Amino acid sequence: MTGTWRDEARCSETDPALFMPDAGGTTAPAKRICMSCEVRTHCLDYAVDAGEQWGIWGGLGQRDLRRLIRERRAEAEAA
Ligand code: SF4
Asked: What distance in Å separates the CA atoms of residue 11 and residue 18, rounded to the nearest whole number?
């Protein structure tokens, strides 16, 4: 990979609104795109480190992302 992971982001080729659905809107199309994104791990690590809690990041929706952030923080505190 050259440049940053964002240069390889599949979402940059699509409608950004898919990744910030309105309340009650579907997250499935964005998550499908994420599953074939080569930088999914980088994206997810960034979102967790930055505490991003809105939108779709690394194939996770808000609830799963918040859970992962809590888990990683708990792991870091326990280490
Ligand atoms: S994994 Fe991240 S960078 Fe890749 S398409 Fe999904 S939101 Fe975009």
From this structure: 9
